[in-house]
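Homework help thread (please don't just give me the answer)

Our assignment gives two proteins as sequence + structure token strings and asks us to describe the second one. The first is just a warm-up. Here they are:
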Amino acid sequence: IIGQLVVLTLARNDEELDQLLENTSEDSLDKDRDKYSFHAFAARRAYVKATPNEFTYNEVVPIQGKTTFDVHLLKRALYHAEKAWEFAQKVGYPSDITILLDISSLIFGYFNKVDELFYYFEEILKQRPHSADLAKHYATLAFNKGLHEKTISLIESQNIEYDGNDYGLLILSYYHLGKPRIALDYLLDGETKILEDKPQNIALLFCLGSELAEKQMEEELVSRYLNLVKGFENGEAVLAINSFIHNSNKNPDLREQYCDQLYAEYQRLNKPVEIAEQLFRYLNPTDINHAQQICELAECILASHELFEKDYFRLAQAYITSDQHGSALSVAEKH
């Protein structure tokens, strides 16, 4: 059966693959190794079906998922993924565990259960400390959880040539840990690779780079990095956000004024989702003007991806404040 699953998957014979998965159960398989493979294939197939036209290797799928995702199928994918990891542990984490890595990051991330993965990741790295693919997946998830020291440790422990994403994680982690000189050194070292690979947050990296260079009084570098940022599609939005954060931290009493300025930039720049995400969390959902803006911003964000659970509560409050009680009830029932 496992051989058939492999062949049908490689041949992209989805109809027969679905039939075989539907007609196969864990109890019909004798070996734990086969049970692992079955659940791994089932998890992968359920995820692909739940995310039509989204599962591509060249596109970063948002961890929140998208509104087009089928939650029922995602729950099935989670069930099979959890079972696959249980059996993988029993058989000593087989060499083809990599088929679970990318899918698991997305599935467990969607349901906010990545801590379950961390346990398995730690076990594998104890056995295979130089598993670069695993370390990279782990580092990305650790960074998303705000574990900056862990992120650095995972990447720097691997004797590999860093790609643009690796450099990005190191730069941002050292930046958040208050180590600007090391962060800037990594940017200088990885600048060519970052420009080649074009990670999703490339504008942010060079925007922070200009800030770091300014602290080191390297004016020529500041100018060069700012010019790079302005050349990216979302460069102006990133610069506006960075200015907003800098001003808000410097003068917190004027944050509402800075929110108004950023909202004006949001309108001027044709409503980029990056600014919508930033403003959404700063506006006051109990203020009528802000509540109306939050509702508008949510439409922009939801066209790109789902909100986090806590953000849906904020949206529901904004709906109530702006007398859209039906919409508030709909959000409450769904989330």
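The one we have to describe:
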Amino acid sequence: ELLVWINRSAENYQSVLAVASQAQVTADPKWPRIEAPELNFAWNGRDLRFFASEAKLGTLPVQAVEVVKSPEQAWLLEASSQLDGATAFAQIEPLPIQLGVWTQDLALQGGVGVSVDLSLASPVTGQVLLQPLDLALTYRPLDLQAQALEGNLIYDLDRGWVDTQGTASFESRVLTWKLDDGKAFGLEIEGPVALETMTQRYLPLFSDQVTGTVPLSARIDRAWSVQAQVAPNQLSLPEPFASGGEVRVSGDGTDIHFERDDQVKLTRADGRLNGRLDQADLAAWVAVIGGGSEVGGNAIELDLQVSDTQLGDVKFGATQLNLQDRLVRIEGP
């Protein structure tokens, strides 16, 4: 159904207004069509406008949409919406834009405001603005749960993520976050967190041996990495860990690496801690690992190559320290 009004002014200025029920409009073949229960058309002799207060842009529900066509310009599209964070990216994904978000590892709770401001030329240009609305984010590989996200996420179709940063609450502390400029999705997070948070999932052998807060710097993209400067005595472990230093954890969700200058590595898949130490006091290490800590119900397995090994005053030289099935075995040359 189409209702049409034609107005003519004293200066012979003519305009046309129309309202279409259950309307469908395709402004550009590269973009999903606009469907609205009531779509308004306006033409002033020069510019053609479509607008609706409730519509769908493809599968994306929008609370406001406007499309304008001027003689010297391509179609201009403006739309805004408020989406459920849990399904927001899935609803945006059918649009012909590449946000580059690694959605299978990100879970959102709360709301996301979406604003689209585009020129439907060839190629399409413009920006998509994502605004957190009481939003919480979980990054599944790290169990990183950030609450009360603030800041706008701006995606430019030409340049990718641009000038995008904000704050979030994590363990009652404020973290800052930013997205990399460019097409790739890269999230950087900095702020103070409890050291135990870094270890309780991937390094349960150490989770009871850490104290205090560390300034965390995390980077998340197709892989992830975490860095923290650990002060002396924050790790209740034998040397060389007790002296502190920089701890680096990185992985792809399968093999997790816990590194320091001594190159100790934990592989989460089988719970085995592999690595190499320059020096080790066997009495101290056996006291730490002898309780048989577990990962997922399986006992920790330890396999360390030690260049200089001692037990009390006795020196063994190079050895291999192995823990399996709660049995400690020491092998030497």
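TA reply:
I won't write it for you, but here's a hint about the kind of observation we're looking for: The two ends are 91 Å apart (CA to CA).
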